[in-house]
Amino acid sequence: MGQEYMNPKNINYDKIINLSRRRFLVTGVTAGAGLTLGVYLGGCNKPSAEKATEAAADKMAAAATNEAGPGLAGGEVVTDSSFEPNAFIRIGSDNMVTVVSKHLEMGQGTYTGLATLVAEELDASWDQIHVEGAPADAKRYNNLFWGPTQGTGGSTAMANSFEQMRKAGAAARAMLVGAAAQKWDTPADSIAIKDGVLSHGNLRATFGELAELAAHQPVPTDAFLKDPDEFRLIGTVLPRKDSKEKCYGKAVYTQDVKLPGMLTAVVAHAPRFGGKVKSFDATEAKALKGVVEVVQIPNGVAVLAKDTWSAKKGRDLLTIVWDESSAFKLGSDEILAQYKQLAESAGAVARKDGDAEQAMTQAAQTFEAAYEFPYLAHAALEPMNCVVKLTAESCEIWNGEQLHTGDQMSLAALFGIPPEKVIINMLYAGGSFGRRANPHSDYVLEAASIAKAINGKAPVKLVWLREDDTQAGYYRPMYYHKIKAGLDKDGKPVSWQHRIVGQSIIKGTPFEGGLIKDGVDGTSVEGVANLPYSVPNISVDLHSPEIDIPVQWWRSVGSTHTAFAVETFIDELAVAAKQDPVDYRMRLLDKHPRHTTVLKLAAEKAGWGSPLAAGKGRGIAVHESFNTYVAQVAEVTVKDDGSYSVDRVVVAVDCGIAVNPDIIKAQMEGGMGFGLSAVVSSKITLKDGKVEQSNFHDYTVLRMNQMPEVEVHIVKSAQPPSGVGEPATPVIAPAVANALFNVTGQRFYVLPIVNVSNTQLASRRKHVA
Amino acid sequence: MIQLMINGTPHQLDIDDDMPLLWATRDIVGLTGTKFGCGMAQCGACTVHIDGQPIRSCVTPVSVAQGKNITTIEGLDSKEARAVQSTWEKLDVVQCGYCQSGQIMSATALLAQNPKPSDDDIDAAMSGNICRCATYARIRAAIKEAARSLA
Ligand code: FES
Ligand code: FES
């Protein structure tokens, strides 16, 4: 990575200085769309945590509505000498600072990133920081971009927490300083803090030594955030907080939870979506050693055993008659045929600039293309699973929890208990890529319904085998795009008509109100409806057919298909206009400096335009998602047999302030690699309603020998940080397809591109005029 | 009764002899560092060593592992292992981490057999280990750096 982009001294922070200089009120400030700073009073530690935190949360709510003013005394319930200045920080007398992460760590580095923000303002030493997952409590731990909802997704973790976590750290710092001032009988402004040690003259004290006294300090009514040029941790490469335990097999995932008396459940699911159990015979399964119970649940039959293997063996011995009268029975080919048919007529309008139809008739030449995208499984390496324990009035789960509030509501409804009686333990997730944020709580409810079916007599761990995970749905939907563009005599696009056909991810979920407007699911058209290229006449419309296959967001959501369609098509237009693909984009991105910056940087670092050996080619693409801008240049080699390899990928990213450049780099590498799986091989297909793939032998994903060399360059930026978990994923497909064109002269309209000589992929570009 | 020697400790287990070593290790013995990803020798998450050789414990019945020395991530302790694990930490290879026990078991076995692996050697030894977070570039770099540190 280019060092010049990693050095915080090179970052221009002017723009955010004004923001951070602003004083803020620690207790009960509301800012923006009703967000409440999760800073509350209380000096309690774990043992009596529940009561005290409830009281504290109520107090916070009261403070937020101005029933209690600033300056409220802190530390009312000190059960030991630890100091818990707010919902996000606990400082123990052992000098450990525990940062409570409201977001799920699923690989994206959020535990490290959020802890960095706290450590920065607290002036803690990185070594004394420890991170733990927050419980489900939307009052304190809501995602500030999602209103009153707690959850992780949309690459929002860093962006929504950037101020909040720094303020939490600054407040705690002020209270520690207050404690030292009291202890040493000296003014607060004469006290310095560095690396977790407070000092005044020759006097020294650690956080741990001051914790108890700090808990009795008034919560500051104002505190300063650092100016960005004072940052000493933000912008540097700090080691990940979760590395060690993950390198020594000690990190705990849902799969690893074992409660006393717990049974493991493996479920027989219907072979087709919408199938129901008509009858079943469990005689053989029940006779098996280790099998304890067999129960019917709404979507299948669960075998509960003392261990996973016995449960699986029992499941395989079940004889089930399925009622498939209302099951889905179409195949991918038939669905695609329907989509093509639909694409013949106009859909719901997502964007209309000028008159694209009229302008098309004036164009010097027009081009058309159609694109096909298959269903995709998330295939996180840890298959979906969930542990549930029931008591008479509560439900406790252990889960790689990505959508706390949604799952809490779903479970509360299932058991008829208040949501706060649903206790969620958020564990590490072995990947998710969106899957664990299921708006229908699918696998969580499945686990809970098994526990319910045995009347809660034992805790239950639901384990999906890889086959269950691959075939249970909630896929990235299949999509079909049709684009037509008209160029003037200079090759400049004057008209762009874009029609998209594919299932809505949002319809039927609690997100419907916010994300579907005028019949358009924003996640279906993102990346096209906000087409950054200057085209005077644009129309974008959408069909959202209802198909009984469960669908869900998949890392980078709509951009997974829109970026491919837009970025390969614009590449075609550049060639038609006889212009260099980089220059052509640069000209049409005249109003989008952040796009052009990454585009230029990636091209420059990749040696765009320099000669390549025979059989090799280069392609570029640029795309913004979740306010992060990514350009990639892919270099490929095409072999005589039509197989190809992706050898090198140069990534340029602008994600605002780079909080931890190495984690950004890791997410660019990994996000790109995740996207590359779907370029070179992954697809879910259906035949007669049955999913044809079942495990990694036929749902193939990227392996070591297919991974290109990756180079990442981070743009210096003063903008607030935006997310990096998703934005690298959608860019690689068009970059590779454009590179393959560069070698073969052939365009690709269907993903995945398994082999360039595959006749199905034959060029379909129609040169109409 | 099945007798397993795991990380130098003998275990007597009342299980059927067709139970894969993976589930015996995780569910019965309680060592959960070895992970389940596919159950059909496709992903490598369950890799352990039997007499120093990397094997996929999800398709290895306990009957086959009896009488042999089984090493899991919890018991890994060799100079190659120390080099691999410390380099993994130094380069911050992990993301979700779920594949990493298996990656580290495969990488350790590779370096024990081949102290100076080429890129092709790394491809051959590591392509059976899927990382859905695609940490492959760092895994490759870490193996090379560990090899250098051992030289
Ligand atoms: S779980 Fe054994 S190889 Fe995947
Ligand atoms: S680190 Fe997530 S699967 Fe490898």
Fold and architecture overview:
The complex is a heterodimer of chains A (769) and B (151). Chain A has 3 domains: 2-247, Aldehyde oxidase/xanthine dehydrogenase, molybdopterin binding domain (Aldehyde Oxidoreductase, domain 4), CATH 3.30.365; 254-326 and 385-463, Aldehyde Oxidoreductase, domain 4; 333-374 and 475-768, 2-Layer Sandwich (Aldehyde Oxidoreductase, domain 4), CATH 3.30.365. Chain A is built from 22 helices and 32 strands. In chain A, the strands form 9 sheets. In chain A, strands 12-13-10-20-17-18-19 form a 7-stranded mixed β-sheet. In chain A, strands 15-25-22-21-16-32 form a 6-stranded mixed β-sheet, sandwiched between helices. In chain A, strands 3-4-5-6 form a 4-stranded mixed β-sheet. In chain A, strand 27 (628-638) and strand 28 form a beta hairpin. In chain A, helix 13 (404-415) runs parallel beside helix 14 (442-453) and helix 18 packs parallel to helix 22 (732-744). Chain A is globular, with a radius of gyration of 28 Å. Chain A starts with a helix and ends with a strand. Mean pLDDT of chain A is 88; it is low at 1-79 and 759-769. With 151 residues, chain B is of the alpha+beta class. Chain B folds into 2 domains: 2-75, Beta-grasp domain (Ubiquitin-like (UB roll), Roll); 79-150, DNA polymerase, domain 1 (Orthogonal Bundle), CATH 1.10.150. Chain B is 41% helix and 14% strand. Chain B has helices spanning 21-29, 62-65, 79-90, 100-113, 119-126, 136-150; strands at 2-6, 9-13, 47-50, 53-56, 69-71. A 5-stranded mixed β-sheet of chain B has the order 2-1-5-3-4, sandwiched between helices. Chain B is globular and about 45 Å long. The N and C termini of chain B lie far apart (44 Å). The chains are: A alpha+beta (769), B alpha+beta (151). At the A-B interface, helix 8 and helix 21 of A face helix 1, helix 3, helix 4, helix 5 and helix 6 of B. The complex binds FE2/S2 (inorganic) cluster (2 copies). One FE2/S2 (inorganic) cluster binds next to loops of chain B. One FE2/S2 (inorganic) cluster sits between chains B (94-100, 131-133, 135) and A (107, 381, 431).
